[in-house]
């Protein structure tokens, strides 16, 4: 039987809270570079291509090697498959750089910065394109590791229900939301990201979902 792709009614409220919290709600605005952060989700590349065609940035970097959750889907590496998908969406090859070694968000940021430097590009602003629930963590990480740039965040537009249906696995989406929430304060404490406000309703939603057993993405 395939994984369930619908939200349990009793969990909708806390999942909605975390979903809305991680969306930075940034309006589209032109920047110097669009950075597609590698993951299991090809919609990151789709969104990056769409924003490029809308004229929001002239240069793209796709960054990402592989993780246990992506090697089956993207055997040649996340950035490589993202690039191929963008090319299929009529993004010119000359507009794309690929960074194929990063294995976490911090490395996505620092290795993208270094790659751009080797190509003589020193942006003053970047758009980070990610999964919807990765926006806040990506923003906080970039602000810590690349403080010289103005950061905007974007994701493929989707409602929570549509996103769960597109992934096809409710438990996976909820577990990732819970894990990314924990990383907001944990990574700030460890110096990997700038602190972010965490309202009481976010803490309460996080605790409720942890108690419900969505703990597979938590850091011990």
UniProtKB/TrEMBL annotation:
UniProt cross-references to InterPro entries, sorted A to Z: Cell_Envelope_Assoc (IPR051599), DUF218 (IPR003848), Rossmann-like_a/b/a_fold (IPR014729)
Enumerate the spans annotated as DUF218 domain. Answer: 44-150
Taxonomy, superkingdom = Bacteria
Q: Which CDD domains match?
A: YdcF-like (cd06259)
> Which GO cellular component terms, listed alphabetically, does the Swiss-Prot or TrEMBL entry include?
plasma membrane
Q: What is this protein called?
A: DUF218 domain-containing protein
Question: What organism does this protein naturally occur in?
Answer: Parafrankia soli
